[in-house]
Design a protein that fits this description.
The protein is an alpha+beta fold and 928 residues long. It is built from 15 helices and 49 strands. Bound molecules: beta-D-glucopyranose.
């Protein structure tokens, strides 16, 4: 609830709520300014950080008292107090003043803690057991998870207990029979050769006086995909603080004991197999005899980073995990259970696409009964699972061998499968599982949802929801391309175009900041960046010094996107030197400012992606009817990258660099016009080519008008179907709008025949496909990506890549928020907001609510003939520009917080208002 006096709410440290444990010596603090006075702004703030709750309550900021700072800033407030030692508990609060001088009361108390900052804080050793793989499928070795344990006594009254935990692989710690935390795939994904993270848990409540047991299970995870030959390692340091002021430590070392458990294997791609007959009852309690367990090996060997990388440490750094881990998002009930082979095989439709696995409740199984689970994106017409496109991952299976207990519950812990359908064989009851026997466990990176999108088109609502399903399914430690086949990589190109959409849908600030460390780590000394990260096991050759345009451009464009969205200036500062190196490197790969096939990426790997997956796309796309030519696509993205670098330089005050990079942009633009444009507009006027030229500001004046017409003609020719690749697709709707034809943008997004977004949804998709033609439901054969179409053939199956869950084409979500809802940032972090919806009669109404870094923004409209009602609410401490479509000013009736709203003129068929934070209703008559 807003208060009479202003107050700071939603306090965050390192962009996370809750008690964050950070390794940063000057963590970023933030809050939202709240006031019930319309138009209130923050005039000043004061932050106190104290070493104890009691001190903070007494307003004693012994760590930091910022004093009263005259500033409206609420984002990226960097701690600037005393140096904080390892383990320091920090209690903080903030007081704000508004523009009338009204002093607020103190906010609620928030907390953060310092992690272990130096190597000398670590007493524990990396331990493990090195075993032969259980099985090998092609190049995948499947190892059994390793169990490690130790007992210890607590003789004094405990004040607190903290566990610092890490692994080479994935771990799960347990204390006295209970799981520590509820995170998955810890300690997170990095290039293990450069850094490993540790997680921190308060485990006080799990310990007791007397004898205690601690155990950890470690599985392969990303360390074994692609494979690095087992050798998983566990690291744990349990620090005990006693009430008498003394302390003690329980650390992984040679005194622990290890054994294999009931799992035969656990592999990120290939699933998990558990033989419950071999369960080690009580291994994580004190009621257990471990005398036959083995002495573990010690030491860590994640391999050496490639020598030409910018960051090549002597050994991997061990750092506090900087984000919120993967957790359960929700549990799903099966929508349908079909018996496919009576009594033997059942296929479950889980209702929507998600990433995770299923939990089984099994009753009355024979001891030794094998239940097998396989997962898929689609089903065949006969109801059987279709997953031929998963390449190596087609061999995946989760297996459970029953113990024979009257009731058993099981779910895998060390694997994940993107899927909608689950095949079950070996179920003990020939009638098959019931709805309550199988629960879908959806996991994703923890990130609060921030958006609600609803409009008058059920198809568009479903599309937006499907984009969300796809995002959650693919946000697992990195924005991965897909969650099911043998890939699951943080491909830069896909991630770059999808980032704005993702950031509208969820609070992903810390997620991206974590992943951006991996991006930085992928830079080569020559200035080039990789094309995916983390690349800990070399999914892509480390020796490749250039991920190429679009992909490697992420190093420049993503920091800007994060700044624009969250107002996080630090990210620009951290990247700046790397950006300058990259910009100069890219220049060297061009001739006359356009791509040169003898230089850079093409000379090394001969692999160009161009406008990837346009309907008629192959590696050379110059003959495409729909997509952008590879050279045009690269020139457009390169130009955009130079322009973004210039904006970043200007923002950081590097004026000369800004002018130089702007010059690079102009040079590319000039060459672009010389090479690809003639007196008719684009020489090769495909949808993709025209859209990129317009959206990336590469054509001006009369040429721009010609290209706009070409784009519209092209769409008209294709009856508003879209067939560009993933990199031109996000440019299409903004380009049509900038050409003055939002109605035509709506014609494209509302299209429901092949190829279009609506076609996917009409075909029953609840996720975004990899290709427009991932499935051809309209053809009599209803084929799933007809073999022989498109690039990337798998040598074994002879099939091209295909996936029902790929975020890239979902990048249209950004347009839906910014043009249907009309919400976008005019200043970084939404300190200034533009509300400019494009009402369309076919859609009739829309309501979008977005929880921005500054607070909640709402934009809603209904259009009835030419009568338009717009409702807008913006948070305190912001400014807004509100564009109300109207014939003229007299036709606009305004109600709400009028005192802080000003009409500033008519522009582009809209009455434009400037506003401070408040709620407004506009009734207008539009010219249409
Ligand atoms: C991924 C893409 C990615 C591409 C690069 C594919 O296998 O799934 O989305 O951008 O590789 O070629």
């Amino acid at each position: 609830m807003a208060k009479k006096h202003p107050v700071a709410v939603a306090l965050s440290c390192e962009h996370l709520d809750g008690c964050v444990v950070t390794g940063k010596t000057c963590p970023q603090l933030g809050w939202q300014f709240q006031s019930e006075l319309p138009g209130a702004i923050q005039a000043a703030y004061r932050v106190l950080v104290a070493s104890s709750d009691a001190r903070l309550a007494a307003d004693d900021g012994d760590f930091w008292d910022s004093g009263m700072v005259q500033s409206g800033d609420t984002i990226d407030i960097r701690y600037a107090g005393k140096a904080l030692p390892s383990r320091a508990g920090c209690f903080w609060k903030v007081k704000v003043w508004d523009g009338t001088g009204s002093e607020g009361s103190w906010s609620e108390t928030a907390q953060f803690r310092m992690g272990l900052l130096s190597e000398s804080d670590w007493q524990s050793k990396w331990i493990g057991l090195d075993k032969e793989p259980y099985a090998q499928i092609r190049y995948a070795q499947m190892f059994a998870p390793v169990y490690l344990r130790k007992e210890f006594a607590i003789g004094k009254e405990l004040e607190s207990a903290t566990l610092y935990a890490s692994a080479l692989g994935w771990y799960e710690f347990r204390i006295n029979g209970q799981r520590v935390g509820h995170d998955y795939f810890t300690p997170g994904w990095t290039d293990y050769r450069i850094r490993l993270y540790y997680n921190t848990y308060d485990v006080t409540a799990l310990l007791k006086q007397g004898q205690n047991a601690i155990g950890g299970v470690v599985a392969g995870g990303w360390h074994n995909w692609p494979d690095r030959g087992g050798k998983m390692r566990l690291l744990g340091q349990l620090e005990l603080q006693f009430k008498d002021g003394s302390s003690a430590l329980v650390a992984t070392d040679g005194s622990w004991r290890g054994a294999l458990g009931p799992e035969r294997y656990a592999h990120l791609l290939l699933g998990e197999s558990c033989d419950m007959r071999k369960a080690i009852q009580g291994w994580d309690t004190t009621d257990f005899d471990a005398s036959k367990w083995e002495v573990p090996v010690e030491g860590l060997d994640p391999g050496k980073p490639f020598a030409s990388k910018v960051n090549v440490p002597a050994k991997p750094a061990l750092e506090a995990y900087p984000s919120a881990p993967v957790r359960v998002y929700r549990e799903r009930k099966p929508a349908a259970i079909k018996s496919v082979v009576p009594g033997e095989m059942f296929v479950l439709d889980m209702g929507a696409y998600y990433t995770g696995f299923v939990r089984l409740k099994i009753k009355g199984a024979q001891r030794g009964q094998l239940i097998r689970l396989r997962y898929g994106d689609w089903i065949n017409k006969d109801g059987t699972l279709f997953n031929a496109y998963l390449r190596l991952a087609v061999n995946m299976a989760d297996e459970y061998i029953c113990s024979g207990a009257p009731e058993e519950t099981w779910e895998p812990r060390f694997t994940f499968h993107g899927h909608r359908y689950v095949e079950i064989t070996g179920w003990p009851d020939p009638k098959g599982p019931s709805e309550s026997d199988v629960v879908g466990i959806e996991i994703t990176q923890y990130a609060p949802d921030t958006i609600s999108f609803a409009c008058g088109s059920p198809m568009l609502n479903k599309l937006f929801e499907s984009i969300g399903n796809t995002r959650r399914a693919c946000f697992i430690e990195a924005p991965i391309d897909c969650p099911q086949r043998d890939e699951r990589q943080g491909w830069f190109g896909d991630a770059l175009i999808f980032a704005n959409t993702a950031n509208y849908q969820a609070q992903l600030h810390s997620f991206y900041r974590k992943w951006m460390v991996e991006i930085l780590d992928s830079q080569h000394k020559g200035g080039g960046f990789a094309r995916l990260a983390p690349n800990n096991n070399g999914y892509w050759p480390d020796s490749d010094p250039d991920g190429g345009p679009i992909y490697a451009d992420i190093s420049v464009v993503l920091p800007w996107k994060i700044y624009r969205h969250y107002g996080d200036r630090e990210v620009l500062q951290i990247f700046y030197q790397a950006i300058c190196r990259y910009v100069e490197f890219r220049k060297t790969t061009l001739s006359n400012w356009l791509r040169d096939e003898s230089k850079g990426i093409i000379a090394i790997t001969n692999e160009w992606y161009g406008d990837w997956l346009a309907i008629d796309h192959f590696f050379t796309a110059e003959t495409s009817e729909w997509g952008a030519d590879t050279s045009i696509c690269y020139a457009a993205y390169t130009a955009k990258m130079f322009m973004t670098a210039s904006k970043i330089a200007a923002e950081l005050g590097h004026k000369d660099d800004a002018a130089q990079f702007q010059g690079y942009f102009e040079n590319v633009k000039q060459s672009f016009n010389q090479a690809y444009v003639d007196e008719h507009g684009m020489k090769h006027p495909t949808q993709g080519n025209c859209a990129l030229a317009l959206a990336f500001q590469l054509v001006d004046g009369a040429v721009r008008a010609l290209v706009s017409k070409q784009l519209r003609d092209e769409f008209r020719k294709h009856d508003w179907n879209i067939g560009t690749g993933i990199f031109a697709a996000p440019a299409v709707l903004p380009a049509l709008c900038s050409a003055g034809h939002p109605d035509e943008a709506y014609s494209v997004i509302l299209k429901e025949t092949y190829p279009s977004w609506g076609y996917m949804i009409k075909s029953g998709a609840a996720s975004i496909w990899e290709r427009w033609y991932s499935r051809r439901t309209e053809l009599p054969e209803d084929e799933i990506c007809p073999p022989g179409r498109g690039p990337c053939f798998d040598k074994n199956t002879k099939l091209g890549n295909n996936s029902a869950c790929h975020p890239a084409l979902g990048a249209v979500g950004e347009w839906m928020v910014e043009y249907i809802g009309g919400i976008s940032p005019l200043e970084p972090g939404f300190k200034k907001i533009r509300i400019k919806p494009l009402p369309d009669a076919r859609v009739g109404l829309a309501e979008v609510t977005y929880l921005s870094p500054m607070g909640k923004i709402r934009s809603a409209w209904t259009l009835d003939g030419s009568r338009l009602r717009m409702e807008v609410a913006t948070p305190a401490n912001t400014k807004a520009e509100i564009w109300v479509p109207a014939k003229n000013q007299e036709d606009v009736q305004v109600s709400g917080d009028k005192a802080v709203l000003h009409f500033s003129g008519m522009q582009d068929g809209c009455a434009v208002f400037t506003a401070l934070g408040g709620s407004y209703v506009f009734d207008s008559v539009t010219s249409s």
